Amino acid sequence: MIEPLDRQLLTAIQQGLAITPRPYTELAEKLALSEQDVVTRISNLKRSGLIKRFGIIVKHRRLGYRANAMVVWDIPDALVDELGQRISQQPFVNLCYQRPRQGEIWPYNLFCMIHGKSREVVEAQLQTLISECGLETFNYEVLFSRRCFKQCGAIYPASQG
Prior knowledge:
Blueprint: H1 4-13, H2 23-31, H3 35-48, E1 67-74, H4 80-88, E2 93-98, E3 110-116, H5 119-133, E4 139-144
Antiparallel strand pairs: 1-3, 1-4, 2-3
Helix pairs in contact: 2-3
């Protein structure tokens, strides 16, 4: 069973952290805790699996990044970890993850997202990615975003026990 104070913490963080130099301090003040207590509790909630991921949501369009492409790769399973690590190290790759193939209709198993200020920039970044990571021989598709969806963090139901 989750402690009432942890439930309050989950409720507070699902609204997003303040954009300040010390967001955990501000959160701690709201909950009458120390900054270290907040950090420790969040770490414990992550370790227990109650929080799956904890990170920032960047509003790319507000920063001028108008072109977004998901690149899907058909990588031999034995190379996915190695190539995924290489791809994720590129400064213009925002995320990189593995998903199961879906037969012949969707043979892709490695996905990465590239954001750029224009479609041309993203296409140039993709060519850099291909050459620097040795991806020339692998099949891929580039899926440019057509619209922007609202991004938000996790919402934790109040009845969660």
